[in-house]
Each structure stands twice: as C-alpha cells, then as structure tokens.
Amino acid sequence: MLKNIKYVGHRGSRGVGVENTIEAFQEGIKRGYFALECDIRVTKDNQFVVIHDETLERLAPNDPLNSFQITELTYEQLKQVTLTQTYQGRILTGKIPLLKEYLKLCKQNNIIPVIELKWSTGINDNDNSNVSNLIQLIKDEGMYNNCVILTSMKNTIKYIRDHYQDISLQLLIGGNSKISDEILKFAVLNRLSVDIEKNVLTKEIIDFIHANKLLVNVWVVNEINQAKQFSSWGVDMITTDVLN
Asked: Regarding beta strands 112-117 and 148-151, do their DSSP bridges make them parallel or antiparallel, or are they unpaired?
C-alpha cells in the first residue's frame, strides 16, 4: 500500500468474510486500513443493521425470507439468516451484524467507521425522522467525533449537516458521465467532503474540493497502478476491496 494514503476497507475487506460482516471488518483491521466502510439499513423493529442490499436475494438466495425487504423483517428474523458469498472458488459464510457491533469493533481497534446510509425507514430523501436515533446510537458508542457518514441522498445529507454541524460527512458521487458543477457546488455550500467513483474523478475536481478545505475519497480502487495515479493527484482517501 502507498504510505501517504488513508485506505478505507470497502464493506470491510474482500476474501475472508462475507461483505459487511464482522469477519470482513476484522480482515480490514488486519490489513491496517485507516477506516472501514459499511452500509446500513433499518429493520421492521427499528434496528440499524449492516447490509448493502434492499433484500437478501444476492447473499442468501436459498433463504425463505430472501424476497422480503430488509425493512419488512425484524432483527430476530435476520439473525437467523446465513449469508453466503463466493470468492476465488471458496464459499464464505457470515451473519448480519448490528451497527452497534460494528461501531464497537471500530472503537476497540482505533478504526474510523465510514457509515453509508441506504434508503431506509426514516432515513431517506423524503423522511429523516430516524436520523436522530442513528446519531444518538453513534454518540452512545463514543464515535460521534471519530466517524464519517456517507450517502448519495442529497436531502438526507443536507438535513444532517443542518442539524449536526460538526459531524464529518461525505457526499457519495457516482455515474458514468461528467460530474456537474451543481453537485460540486452543493458539496462545498454544505461543507461536505466527497467520495467519488474512480471513473469520473479528475485532478481538477480534487483541486477544487481541496481549495475549499474539504477532503476527497475515491471508490473503489483495487489496482495499485490506479492507486498510484490517484495518489499523485492528491486524493486523501482510497476506498478498496483489496489492493492488488
């Protein structure tokens, strides 16, 4: 790894545990990552769980609950589900953790949690009534001043900035076309650092964000030559599954 870059383990790390499980996060810790990124959703009984997808179809295709939305299931139901993922011919298994478990693991190992908000009950561009519960949980775990909240939902991230002015935020920006000036100005106006997909990130964008005293994270970079390029451009963080 390049020594001047802060690495963020994407959904933990690839190859040892199923994405977004405790095993994957533990592997990211072993790899020496500065931060660990996770995705969160809200269950039917209002628990914050760590999972990327809306349903279990991809990671538990044979489970009888796989067609239900995460928001339709309780945490007790989700606890019974075994996730599976194949990596280089090996079948990995794991369980869905609570956000609280992930935060405790990060705190114990001096790792920055990067929490990506997925569209969920009370955390979406139409309704942010659950944001206060999320922030309180982060505070209760002693990670408010040592976390990053990440999302592509503009209304949600603006709501968080308006109500929690000192928390670290990153606006997730992706796509296959040129990034608009409007979205960059939105980030600067609301004091949002950015997490930009590698295919659309340019040195000019990095320079613009840095000129406004904000940070640039790039996702998802798995090749060392790409990492070297982004490092030479001055990115602050590189999000990776595993750097080859």
From this structure: parallel
